[in-house]
Amino acid sequence: MLIRLVEHIDLNEAFAYLNSPTAGAVNFFIGTVRNQTKGKEVLHLDFEAYDAMALTQMEKLANIAMHKWPLVGVAVIHATGAKQPGTPVVLIGVSSAHREASFEACRFLIDELKKSVPIWKKEYFEDNSVWVNAHP
Fold first, then answer.
1. According to the UniProt entry, what is the EC number of this protein (predicted)?
2. What CATH superfamily is the domain 2-127?
3. How high is the pLDDT of residue 133?
């Protein structure tokens, strides 16, 4: 398992980790910073995490996915710090022999990450900033 909190997500590193002769499918969800929210222009976002708890919960979710589906590999990576629109901020990657397992596990991992991993984001607009309750 590749479980990380990082300043910058390296897409090539994640693919190299997940790619395997036994994997017929490598599936990614990559979440990026939008340039608007509710019609307001987003200047940038700041992500903060409770590192030890976040990594533990990310690993727990990866283990659940590995036991629920026949996966070859799992990558769960989230960026922290200030991020500009268009920047990747979360990567969920899974590899498996067949595509169905990789699609299902990928969706499970991003949905559960957003529900249970202690990572918070603050959106900055021209006139104000707000903390968003996207994570616990």
1. 2.8.1.12
2. Molybdopterin biosynthesis MoaE subunit (3.90.1170.40)
3. 63
